[in-house]
Design goal:
Blueprint: E1 18-29, E2 36-47, E3 51-55, H1 62-69, E4 77-82, E5 85-86, H2 92-102, E6 103-106, H3 118-129, H4 135-144, H5 160-173, E7 178-182, H6 190-205, E8 211-214, H7 218-221, E9 226-231, E10 234-240, H8 244-257
Parallel strand pairs: 3-8, 3-9, 6-7, 7-8
Antiparallel strand pairs: 1-2, 1-4, 4-5, 9-10
Helix pairs in contact: 3-5, 4-5, 5-6
The protein binds adenosine-5'-triphosphate.
Adenosine-5'-triphosphate binds next to strand 2 and helix 1.
Domain ABC transporter: 20-257
GO cellular component, one term: plasma membrane
Protein name: Putative ABC transport system ATP-binding protein
Length: 261
């Protein structure tokens, strides 16, 4: 017998904890001669409570896959779920609400508001949504990312690494079901980048979060539990427990084979 009550978002059937899922997702941009197939029937499951990296050559569809999984972009064909909610078919208003309540985002550009201090930036999405942050969780997040003594600083008074820590805390503040990062360390030097990756790792290990990160960097991918490799809009490989060397080897393999299908 299966239990009648499922945890929110633990995925249907089979009992595996799936935080997000794409089923035969195709995404095409443009029409006719200028049509580009950015994703070609991609199916993938993102495990809950794990750190997944998406890698692949430039133009292979990494950002498009992330945007489709996160409900930031519509699909041409196929279906997408976050937890048990199917995104494909939702109206824009429902999608906005689902993203706001269940998804955290970290981008390459920190996207902080310059007139607000760190804590105001962190709680802004919840303030806009009219939700009260869970203070205990918020304190835990702030101490995890090491911002406790910087909360009254404005972005201009913070280093790039500290600004991205604010962005990480903002993404975590609402206890999202899933966090997406698109090259979150792309604007940081390697030390600040390593710090942010360490915080993402800790948010998985210590806070039970689910993280999906697009990256070009094998060193960044090595922080993940699993790497999914894309080429020409298709998933061509994946790797559990990656190391930077293993990832680099695999990437070289793709390069020497040229187009992989
Ligand atoms: N809005 C758009 N309009 C038209 N084509 C697009 C659009 N967005 C992406 N593409 C095309 O879709 C393909 C996949 O793009 P995507 O940005 O997902 O790749 P990527 O792997 O993230 O690349 P990079 O590593 O260079 O950021 C590319 O050929 C790109 O030119």
């Amino acid at each position: 017998m299966t239990t009648a009550v499922a945890e929110p978002g633990t995925g249907g059937g089979g009992g595996t904890a799936v935080a997000a899922r794409a089923e035969r997702v195709t995404k095409a941009y443009g029409e006719g001669d200028t049509r580009v197939l950015a994703l070609d029937e991609v199916s993938v499951e993102i495990a809950r409570g794990a750190f997944t990296a998406i890698m692949g050559p430039s133009g292979s569809g990494k950002s498009t896959l992330m945007h489709c999984l996160a409900g930031l972009d519509s699909v041409t064909a196929g279906r997408v779920w976050i937890g048990e909610t199917e995104l494909t078919g939702l109206r824009e208003k429902q999608l906005t609400q689902l993203r706001r309540d269940n998804v955290g985002f970290i981008f390459q550009a920190f996207n902080l508001l310059p007139t607000l201090n760190a804590i105001e930036n962190i709680t802004l999405p919840m303030d806009i949504a009219g939700r009260k942050p869970d203070q205990k969780w918020l304190d835990h997040v702030i101490s995890t990312v090491g911002l406790a003594d910087r909360l009254s600083h404005r972005p201009s008074e913070l280093s790039g690494g500290q600004q991205q820590r604010v962005a990480v805390a903002r993404a975590l503040a609402s206890k999202p079901q899933i966090m997406f990062g698109d090259e979150p360390t792309g604007n940081l030097d390697s030390r600040a980048g390593a710090e942010i990756l360490g915080f993402l790792r800790r948010s998985v290990d210590e806070l039970g979060q689910t993280v999906v990160m697009v990256t070009h960097d094998p060193v960044a991918a090595a922080y993940a539990d699993r790497v999914v490799f894309l080429a020409d809009g298709r998933i061509v490989d994946e790797m559990a427990d990656p190391t930077a060397d293993k990832v680099l080897d695999r990437m070289r393999g793709f390069d020497s084979q040229g187009r992989t299908s």
